[in-house]
Design goal:
The chain is an alpha+beta fold and 124 residues long. It folds into two domains: 85 residues, no CATH class; 38 residues, no CATH class. It is built from four helices and four strands, in the order H-H-H-H-E-E-E-E. Strand 1 and strand 2 form a beta hairpin. Helix 2 packs antiparallel against helix 3. Bound molecules: zinc ion (ZN). Zinc ion binds next to loops. The site of zinc ion (ZN) has 8 residues, from loops.
Length: 124
């Protein structure tokens, strides 16, 4: 019995950061759906839970690790943006859509896009 259980769980992805986040989000959505009696939210939470378990028991480790790495990069980007929100202002170049970061509190400044050289004025 112990051997069979060990054989079943070996080479599985398990719960990684993305899986943990999916479980917490599913729990939060499920609680909201239950509190407000919205069956759509409850069903969405069940689908999220199912996806989290499918990922946890998946043997496709490479794909799961790639998804987790993408999720971690996105989460770190959001954390950085959140930390910089009081010191920097973010714009997007009108010509090439490059994201630009300028310091806040400098008044009206002329911003030059480092990618395409487009100039535009913005208040920071
Ligand atoms: Zn540009």
């Amino acid at each position: 019995m112990k051997y069979k259980l060990h054989a079943f769980f070996s080479n599985r992805n398990g719960i990684d950061e993305l899986g943990r986040t999916l479980l917490w989000v599913a729990l939060a959505i499920m609680i909201l759906g239950t509190l407000f009696g919205i069956t759509f939210l409850y069903n969405a939470a069940l689908i999220l839970l199912l996806y989290a378990y499918i990922r946890a028991f998946s043997r496709n480790l490479e794909k799961c690790q790639r998804q987790n790495a993408k999720y971690l990069a996105w989460r770190n980007f959001l954390k950085l943006r959140f930390r910089q929100r009081k010191t920097h202002k973010f714009y997007r170049c009108r010509k090439c859509k490059q994201k630009l970061c300028v310091p806040k509190g400098k008044g009206k400044i002329c911003i030059t896009c480092p990618n395409c050289g487009e100039h535009f004025e913005k208040r920071t």
